[in-house]
Amino acid sequence: MKGKMFTVVLMCMLFGGGCKPAEEPASSAQSPSPSDSAKNKAYNIHKGFIEAERRFGTELFQNMSEQDGLTDNLLISPYSLQQVLMMTANGTEGDTLKEIKAALYLSGLHDSAINESSFALMKRFESLPEGELLTANAVWTRIETKPDFKQTIKQFFSGRVFKMDDNIQTAKNLINQWTAHQTKGHIDDIADHLSPEAVSLLVNAVYFQEKWALPFDQYVTAEEHFFLPDGSAKKLLLMKQTARLAYLENELFQAVKLPYEDQQLTFTLFLPKKKPASFMSLFTSQNIKAWDSAFQPKTVKLSMPRFTLKGQYNVKRALHDMGMKSVFSAADFSSMFTEGHGVSIDDVNHHTFIKVDEAGTEAAAASSVETVESALTPDVTLMANRPFFFVITDEQTSSLLFLGFVAHPIE
């Protein structure tokens, strides 16, 4: 690629640390339309903003699953990807801005409504009474950035703009140290492949730590067979509990919602009855929303593996397929840099990590917590002993925090 290279790297993690929010508050958010749900009105989040995130996330998830044929694990954070691309969009103008907003399904929203909704959602996550869900943003650059861009990153993304060191190895080390600090050491190599020609690097990190509202009893975890995509089986430790949970079953799948201590956050497990690929075609934002309203309380006898997923993905091809084409060759970053000509996006990378065990979703040992009575008689049984999908949702705003597919559980 001729001219200067502009590298965008997204780093998304479930276990790490978040930066402190900017000291000054965002400007007054645009008033939500009358059709906005009451739950998002309370946080000044535009309804279209959440709907866009859900549609973008599920379509990207489908696109990436088609690339690997659902033969391996997959984990993305729609929220985190949306964040880093919105930061990038704030530095663009003209067709470049239109293209990024179209790929994010945000074309119908004014730029100010997008930024204000992003900030409001961030503040919503910081207000959780239990656990932590924080986001950290930063920009490293060798080209002088415009004051308005710096202010936008500070005000709406609680982030900072740093000068990138001219020595490429020093730059890599400093960026890796920042990400390692934000993620408690889980990611320390995000900048390892940073090009010497790169003039800017945008990074977003999400920190997520929650305990189950109804933790699994580690003493009843037992070894069972888990059936892999190729039909073979391997023995894994499956967590077990019988509890009153939101449950849904039809001819396509079984599903159960596991609440976290913050009751508005849920882990929804979808177990397809047929091949995962046939279910993936139905795994759309519209269907997930429709299914959400159909869950009913049932006493569920649940078995599921404890698992750890770690992924590193290049999402450039997927974003290209979703309409972000010219930004990778001829972009307009005149709102970010004082010298914006000849700068384009070179890469978009996504790193993810999750560990699910008896205690909850965190990188820690199981805690001493109250367990569910074993005397409950189950209405239904859900045994996730074959590939399954999961969604981590903020039920308060309907934001999709993480989408995952577990094909090969690794403890």
Which key features would you list for this structure?
Antithrombin, Chain I, domain 2, Alpha-1-antitrypsin, domain 1, Serpin family protein, globular, disordered N terminus, four-stranded mixed sheet, 411 residues
SSE order and pairing:
Layout: H1 38-41, H2 47-68, E1 74-76, H3 78-89, H4 94-103, H5 111-126, E2 132-141, H6 147-157, E3 160-163, H7 168-182, E4 200-211, E5 222-227, E6 233-249, E7 253-259, E8 265-272, H8 276-280, H9 285-292, E9 296-305, E10 307-314, H10 316-321, E11 349-356, E12 360-361, E13 380-383, E14 388-394, E15 399-406
Parallel strand pairs: 2-3, 9-13
Antiparallel strand pairs: 1-15, 2-4, 4-12, 5-6, 6-7, 6-9, 7-8, 8-14, 10-11, 14-15
Helix pairs in contact: 2-3, 5-6
The CATH homologous superfamily of the largest domain: Antithrombin, subunit I, domain 2
How many separate domains make up the residues? 2
> Low-confidence parts, pLDDT < 50 over ≥5 residues?
1-39, 362-376
- The overall pLDDT average reads 79
| Distinct helical segment count | 10
The CATH class of the largest domain turns out to be: Alpha Beta
Structural class: alpha+beta
CATH fold type of the largest domain: Antithrombin, Chain I, domain 2
Fraction of helical residues = 25-40%
* Percentage of residues in DSSP E strands: 25-35%
Shape: globular
Largest sheet: 9 strands, mixed
**H-E string:** HHEHHHEHEHEEEEEHHEEHEEEEE
CA radius of gyration is 21 Å
Q: Got a strand count? A: 15
Q: Which CATH architecture of the largest domain is right?
A: 2-Layer Sandwich
Distance between the termini: 42 Å
Protein name: Serpin family protein
Organism: Bacillus rugosus
